[in-house]
Amino acid sequence: MSLIETEAALHEAHRDNHTHRDVNGGWLRPAVFGAMDGLVSNLALMTGVAGGVVSPRTLVITGLAGLAAGAFSMAAGEYTSVASQRELVQAELDVERRELHKHPLDEMEELAALYVSRGVEPALARQVAAQLSKDPEQALEIHAREELGIDPDELPSPLVAAVSSFGSFALGALLPVLPYLLGATTLWPAVLLALVGLFACGALVARVTARSWWFSGLRQLLLGGGAAALTYGLGSLFGAAL
For residue 151, what pLDDT is reported? Predict the structure, then answer.
């Protein structure tokens, strides 16, 4: 095999093996954490009410009310949070855009100094900065990435964030209610289904962490189960006192 063929094979093997997980989480992280939030909060709510010895009908109403209230609250909060963040970023981009228009040479020197601080030769840093600064939009994008740590072309959408939060929270919150909707009359089927959901969500979280799936799943099961047990105890205590 020739040297060129050997190097090509090694490059291809390196490319195939040198892959990284999505450290930003992409769609998986907010979806899984939203579902987990809905599952834990609604499970804890229902077990707390069940501790007060109420009818299955009351638990169904409680669970559905918790689902609706939590989902709308999550959606509204996520929309406001992402919209505010986006507005702040846009304001900072406007500031940077004005500076590039009013003081282009100063901004170019600022970019060159940044590259020098990262080990680039001063002459080469100025040459690169001058080349990149010829296009105002490209210069804005580079300054935004280097100074603000953001990509102007990849700002999050408030609507997408709100809809995904609403859907994932509602899906998670539905699990503890589902057995009652299918005819269950006791709390245990709801608890068991919710615990299975907690383990599954925790295992999915392992895809964006360095933990093993079983450790992440077991950890979430114990945390969610502990929250449910605590609220059940409080419900029993308050129910007996009333």
Answer: 84
Query: pLDDT per residue over 209-220, tens digit each?
Result: 777 989 999 999
Q: Say if CB 166 and CB 76 are below 8 A apart.
A: no
Tokens at residue 44, please?
């804890």
Residue 137 is inside which H or E element, if any?
A: helix 136-143
Decide: 42 and 177 in contact? Cβ < 8 Å. yes
* Residue that is written with structure tokens 């100094």 in the block: 113
Rounded to 10 degrees, what is the CA torsion of 172, 58, 192, 69?
A: 10
Calpha distance 64→58 (Å, rounded) = 10
* Pairs from 167-170 (Cβ < 8 Å, separation ≥ 24): 167/34, 167/71, 168/30, 168/31, 168/32, 168/33, 168/34, 168/35, 168/38, 169/34, 169/35, 169/37, 169/38, 169/67, 169/70, 169/71, 169/74, 169/75, 170/38, 170/67, 170/71
With tokens 């409680």, the residue in question is 62
- Cα separation of 166 and 160, whole Å? 10
Q: What is the pTM of this model?
A: 0.77
27 — pLDDT class (breaks 50, 70, 90): low
What letter represents residue 110's amino acid?
E
Confidence band, pLDDT 50/70/90 cuts, at residue 25: very low
